[in-house]
Fold this sequence. Notes:
497 residues, alpha/beta, globular, FBXL15_LRR, F-box domain-containing protein
Amino acid sequence: MRSPKQCGCTISMEDLPEALLGEIIKRLPTTSDLNSISLVSKRLYTIEAELWDTIYVGCGVSPATMALASLCSRFQNLCKVEFNYSGWTTNHGMQLDNQGLHMFSSCCPLLTDLTLSFCSYIDDSGLGFLACFKKLISLRFKALPKITSAGLLSVAVGCKSLSALRLMSCKNVGSVEWLEYLGKNGLLEELVVQNCKKIDQFNLLTFGSGWMKLQKFEFQHWYLPNTFMFGGPSYMAGNQSRYDFCCDFLKDLTLARTTTEKEIGLCCLLRKCKALENLALYYALGVHDNDMITLAQNNRNLKRISLMLTPQHCDGYVYRTSLTDDCLKALALCCPRLQSFELTFYGCEPEYPEIGFTQKGLVMLIQSCPIRELTLSGVDIFNDKGMKALACAQFLESLKLVSCIAITDAGMHHLACSPSLINLALELCNGLTDRGVAKVVRARKLESLTIEKCSRISLKAVQGAAKTVHYTDDCPGYEEWMERCVYGPKVYDLHAF
């Protein structure tokens, strides 16, 4: 076949089919490349503008209203837009305000996904303009200090197609008329509430029939509870109608820093889910074996479980984590699809019986289920004998050990026989040395190896040990250490923006 040059003809960018040009533009990785190619010809400029459906607006775009008008004029097919003013100061110029949001709502008719983060000048009147986005499906509000429940009610009433709502650090959102309205409307499939001081778990029970369609739910309170705290106008222990709802389609559930007791509170969700695939309980005090056993027996779809536990009063004066091997046994027997398991203990001293689990229970779970990803953090009960059993796990591909002080080089040597291990991460494991890691590296063809803050493992020992190697020997700073003491490990920024 002869080339165009041999045929005596030339092909320019203008001669290429529009579909091919569009595919070329889609494959360009950076904004600078897109800007450069759009300067080549008017046709490329037009096609590039038509294909651009997502933009991010930060502190550097000022004045925001004028810049936004220009962006919307050029990119008329925008579907997903994020405004993020994190780190904003007055030197950055004006943020997006109510007037800018009003203008934006009139010139971006195809918008389906909107994120507003750290927008200090948007209040309830600004939220009222969101009803103009007729196709809006997903909303994220993060750190909007001026919005209240009244503004959210206008969103609930005006945004007829809304199916995902995420509220994060909105400190003045309280009363729940908006939540009741969304529940009756029954369209939400995703609801996330993080660190909103005036919204408690009993408010969320007013969602009512809305639970029936919900597929993802996350609630994270703004502090780490250390006692059972009940009361207030929304708390009615005898009102069972608050718990008379179904959540048969819930697939993803996260409860972080909540307090429940005796079938009161959001722990009731664990006994109602029949389609749950992903479960995360981060310091959810008051969740007991019966809750987890009921979940396991009613649900065979579980694929991922993440547990972060701290001691609490259980069975009178006993001070330990509330979950025991009974719950692990139920999971091992009833969850044939469980592929990912994460376990973190915080505030548990190795010399005291504060952990309800035993190494035998953990090994039973790991060997009974097709675990592919395993994370153990602060699990002092897991030692070299446990590592020997772990090495026999047929499906285990990824292992992360954090601050597991009972594991030594002898335990690491067992991993050399692991049949499927390709990803290994070690953090704050000061019982391990170069010798332990070297044995695994020589025996396994690792895809990735991560070593963080392990004082006895050197950079020389891990260089070239896997296709991807990450190494740091930095120790936690004082501020990070204090934050862990007060709030627990940095695990609360879930599904971060």
